[in-house]
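[step 3/7] inverse_fold.run input=structure_tokens len=1035
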């Protein structure tokens, strides 16, 4: 999935929070007992055989079902005690692990021959448990039912604690993850959507294999009204069965009185009805207005991560791969699409047509299934063995050609690069009018926002860059994610980190004119900023709740994942080794599921023959711990000492970690600093290490071209030497290295390691800087300080800061033209500079933008504003009361999507309170402004002081409606929270944010993004407290 936002550097600035929920967080029936235990373990991934390897915590909960009885008593005592929050169990565990006399006398993990103390404790414990069981049994709505307690015996003090189904019966499963005893093999899905009534009916036939004998089948289903269900074992007769539902976990189950035996096959058939989802996931409806002003409806799907279950009952976890045969009925005026090519169409007696698609030729995870009912039109082209088509609403047909061209090139590139051909006969790319993410990689049927797929012939390269990047990302997923899939969402980065990395890598080959290098560099800077916070998380991290699944779609999985792959690739001596390892990994695990270790092992194996680098050892240090290292370099003549520590931004300086990374430190020096051959490598594995250079040097620049995921501190002398070198000759370092120095020194100032004066010293070289990356990075950093000052209402300082920024960038800004510009990098530079100048009310900029807008208005759409200048022009128009209405009118009638979004950003930058309120309420209602655009609207408003106040009020008042539309933890919610909080820096602001979010409880207070927001405000506050005096003196 692409998270969206054409401003990709914004993607990297998502929130986190480290609260580790137990899996019971949402579970009213069993939660009370479980919550009391602070020591309650988190829920590890199930092993293939649930019977043998059930984690201890969960064993207790599934007991009484006849297949998971515990076999030792101490285990019972301990687990139960954990639930009751009893502390003695810690001692018990300690005894075991220390091989104490207790464990020698009795078999480990048993209290059948315990010490007298243990007997006393166990007896006492049994009494407590028995009393509690009785009390709970007689409580109304108690989860301890007769059925649950049906097998009392002296070795099991607590019988089953598991939830109640909607029909009042016991639900036979009490975990988030499904049991592993049943494996789905194939699905036959028949869907009958009714676009008039906004409902659908369906029939799902699931063929399954029984891997371990069991009495139940547990799977997923949400908001489905199951009207009939039958079950057939082997060649036997089908008979009716009851499907139980446990809503909080969106699970369904069928119980059997007779055990289903391992090795048997069975078929479950269900008929059901449901409403279309009114959010952006599941099987949802969307609409658009055609050129005659008629409203046209359509239905589409978005299943990743957890919403296939909203369209059909299924085993909705990535590891349950199966084949799918899909049939959909439609009115004659519509067409349907699904993952596979259409096999046949049949006229039904009710006047509808049923389209049947070929059975998938590959095993697929449920989140990759997709279908669409609409009246779209395609353009098509054959690429190798694949028919590639791009679909859009008929009116936008003319905007599909670029997508088709770039997709064809990319498909050929990937077929060759991965040495595995795209396995399906067709590949459709479809622009959906209502779509929340940027795009979704459904196998053979990739869905997009209109903005990320449709682009006019006359559009600028910068606009094409957005479309090409998203397509490159989604195509890479057809291998990384679709062919080889992460086993569970904890390793989402295997999908997303790879697709993100391949997105930049492929485009550098396929379309170098798009110059994606600057974008990738800035994305890596933002990933570092976010990962520096204490609320960050390891790339590969525990995921135990649905919110945590949503939260994995963040910059750590995407951009940090991509950054560490770049670092790894750059550290291989040959340029083909990385690719060879990837090919081996894809071939070895084709059609299967993997975890992070599988990838590192594949890369290590390839590497062994040519180079002795243990990839697994090196990369595990980057995926298993959060954050990244700060490398401090000390240069004495020709002797270099490197030291590493965790670059951790904490507001109270109390958290220290002993994390160590295996860092391929690269460096160049004053005598050779530009060409790739200048680059040397030293692997830093220890806390500190020393090496000698062949001769004395004046300075070193570490992290050549910023391909490593770390920050460098050169010490006072080192920074001075680099600054001096740059002042003498700005081209002594590559532009990536200059941008990385700017990024790093601001980060060090935030850490409190480098005084702000030193940051300003580096800025001295700036009069000669003209390259996009260093300029935009510096602009971003200074603008951030300016916005914070503005929001603290330090008006005087803010205006002095504004003058400083304008003065610093004055010459470069004055050089910019307002004509068409061909070069992408120059477009990026120009749009950043002019947007800055106009947003700071620079007179000349405002005047030129205003006059360009007037000409555009008068030309009746015939004049084109250069694509990279549109944002500046529309923002100026949106800020003026005179032109806002005209802009709004243009927005409502605009069909060209990337232009339309820029107009919306312009509208949202108004300072007029009435209009701010109006836009927000339009967005919430989805009238004039699509609800999917609310995160963009809010982040734009939050650029200004007044706008942000309105946005904050709006969020507080409408929180429940927002989380109805955007799931808790989702990228959209992360963006909203970050937008309203990231430029706050006062205690009052902190208190307000804290009070609001803590009051949300289960409606969002546990999100990582909340934690991140609070940390960020505290860090801003600390920086301001420290540096306000310097700013006052210096500005
Ligand atoms: Zn993706």
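[step 3/7] decode complete -> sequence:
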């Amino acid at each position: 999935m692409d998270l969206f936002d054409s401003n990709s550097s914004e993607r990297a600035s998502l929130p986190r929070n480290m609260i580790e929920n137990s899996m019971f967080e949402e579970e009213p029936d069993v939660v009370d007992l479980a919550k009391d235990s602070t020591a309650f373990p988190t829920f590890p991934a199930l092993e293939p055989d649930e019977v043998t390897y059930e984690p201890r915590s969960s064993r207790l909960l599934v007991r009484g079902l006849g297949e998971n009885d515990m076999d030792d008593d101490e285990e019972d005592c301990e687990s139960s005690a954990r639930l009751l929050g009893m502390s003695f169990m810690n001692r018990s565990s300690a005894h075991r692990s220390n091989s104490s006399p207790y464990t020698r006398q009795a078999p480990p993990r048993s209290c059948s021959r315990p010490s007298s103390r243990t007997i006393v404790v166990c007896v006492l414990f049994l009494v407590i448990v028995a009393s509690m069981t009785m009390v709970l049994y007689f409580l109304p709505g108690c989860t301890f039912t007769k059925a649950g307690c049906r097998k009392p015996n002296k070795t099991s003090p607590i019988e089953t604690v598991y939830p109640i189904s909607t029909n009042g019966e016991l639900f036979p499963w009490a975990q988030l993850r499904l049991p592993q005893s049943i494996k789905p093999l194939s699905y036959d899905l028949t869907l009958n959507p009714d676009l008039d009534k906004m409902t659908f009916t369906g029939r799902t036939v699931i063929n399954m294999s029984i891997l371990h004998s069991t009495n139940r089948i547990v799977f997923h289903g949400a908001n489905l009204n199951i009207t009939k269900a039958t079950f057939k074992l082997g060649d036997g007769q089908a008979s009716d069965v009851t499907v139980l539902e446990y809503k909080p976990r969106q699970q369904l189950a069928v119980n059997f009185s007779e055990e289903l035996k391992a090795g048997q096959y069975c078929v479950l058939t269900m008929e059901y009805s449901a409403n279309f989802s009114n959010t952006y996931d599941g099987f949802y409806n969307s609409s658009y207005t055609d050129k005659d002003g008629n409203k046209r409806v359509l239905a589409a799907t978005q299943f990743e991560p957890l919403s296939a279950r909203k369209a059909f009952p299924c085993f909705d976890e990535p590891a349950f791969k199966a084949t799918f045969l899909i049939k959909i009925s439609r009115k004659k005026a519509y067409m349907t699409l699904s993952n596979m090519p259409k096999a046949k169409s049949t006229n039904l007696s009710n006047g509808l047509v049923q389209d049947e698609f070929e059975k998938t030729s590959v095993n697929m995870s449920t989140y990759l299934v997709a279908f669409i009912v609409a009246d779209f039109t395609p353009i098509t082209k054959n690429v190798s063995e694949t028919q590639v088509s791009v679909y859009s609403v008929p009116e936008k047909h003319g905007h599909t050609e670029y997508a088709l061209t770039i997709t064809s090139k990319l498909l050929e590139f990937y077929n060759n690069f991965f040495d595995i051909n795209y396995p399906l006969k067709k590949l459709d790319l479809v622009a959906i009018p209502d779509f929340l993410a940027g795009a979704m990689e459904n196998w053979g049927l990739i869905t997009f926002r209109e903005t990320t797929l449709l682009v006019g012939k006359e559009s600028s390269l910068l606009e094409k860059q957005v479309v090409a990047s998203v397509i490159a990302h989604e195509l890479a997923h057809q291998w990384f994610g679709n062919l080889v899939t992460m086993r569970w969402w904890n390793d989402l980065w295997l999908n997303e980190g790879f697709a993100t990395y391949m997105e930049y890598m492929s485009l550098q080959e396929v379309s170098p004119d798009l110059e994606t290098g600057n974008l990738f560099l800035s994305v890596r800077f933002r990933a570092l900023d976010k990962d520096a916070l204490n609320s960050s998380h390891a790339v590969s991290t525990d995921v135990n709740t649905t919110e945590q699944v949503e939260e994995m779609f963040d910059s750590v999985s995407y951009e940090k994942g991509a950054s560490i792959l770049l670092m790894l690739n750059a550290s291989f001596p040959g340029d083909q080794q990385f690719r060879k390892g990837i090919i081996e990994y894809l071939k070895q695990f084709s059609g299967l599921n993997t975890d992070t270790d599988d990838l590192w092992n594949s890369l290590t194996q390839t590497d062994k023959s040519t180079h002795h680098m243990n990839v697994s050892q090196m990369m595990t240090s980057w995926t298993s711990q959060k954050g990244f290292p700060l490398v401090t370099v000390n240069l004495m003549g020709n002797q270099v000492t490197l030291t590493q520590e965790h670059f951790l931004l904490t507001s109270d300086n109390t958290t220290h970690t002993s994390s160590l990374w295996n860092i391929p430190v690269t460096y160049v020096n004053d005598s050779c600093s530009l060409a790739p051959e200048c680059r040397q490598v030293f692997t830093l594995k220890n806390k500190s290490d020393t090496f000698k250079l062949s001769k004395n040097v004046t300075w070193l620049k570490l992290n050549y071209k910023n391909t490593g995921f770390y920050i460098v501190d050169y010490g006072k002398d080192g920074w001075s030497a680099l600054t001096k070198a740059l002042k003498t000759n700005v081209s002594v370092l590559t532009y990536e290295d200059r941008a990385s120095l700017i990024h790093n020194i601001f980060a060090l100032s935030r850490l409190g390691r480098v005084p702000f004066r030193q940051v300003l010293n580096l800025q001295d070289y700036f009069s000669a800087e003209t390259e996009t990356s260093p300029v935009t990075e510096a602009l971003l950093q200074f603008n951030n300080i300016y916005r914070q000052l503005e929001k603290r209402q330090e008006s005087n300082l803010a205006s002095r800061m504004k003058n400083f920024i304008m003065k610093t960038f004055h010459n470069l800004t004055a050089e910019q033209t307002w004509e068409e510009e061909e070069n992408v990098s120059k477009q990026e530079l120009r749009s950043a500079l002019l947007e800055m100048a106009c947003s700071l009310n620079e007179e000349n900029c405002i005047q030129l933008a205003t006059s360009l807008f007037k000409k555009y208005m008068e030309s009746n759409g015939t004049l084109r504003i250069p694509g990279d200048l549109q944002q500046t022009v529309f923002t100026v128009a949106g800020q003026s009361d005179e032109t806002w209405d005209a802009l709004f009118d243009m927005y409502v009638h605009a069909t060209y999507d990337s232009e339309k979004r820029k107009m919306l950003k312009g509208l949202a930058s108004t300072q007029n309170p009435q209009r701010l309120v109006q836009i927000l309420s339009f967005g919430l209602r989805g009238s004039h402004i699509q609800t999917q655009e609310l995160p963009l609207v809010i982040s734009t408003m939050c650029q200004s002081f007044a706008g942000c106040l309105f946005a904050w009020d709006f969020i507080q008042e409408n929180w429940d409606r927002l989380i109805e539309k955007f799931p808790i933890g989702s990228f959209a919610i992360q963006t909203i929270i970050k937008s309203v909080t990231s430029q706050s820096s006062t205690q009052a602001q902190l208190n307000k944010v804290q009070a609001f979010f803590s009051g949300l409880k289960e409606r969002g207070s546990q999100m990582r993004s909340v934690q991140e927001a609070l940390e960020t405000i505290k860090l801003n506050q600390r920086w301001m407290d420290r540096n306000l005096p310097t700013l006052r003196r210096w500005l």
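[step 4/7] annotate
The two ends are 45 Å apart (CA to CA).
The pocket of zinc ion is lined by residues 1-2, 473, 477, 496, 499 (CB under 6 Å).
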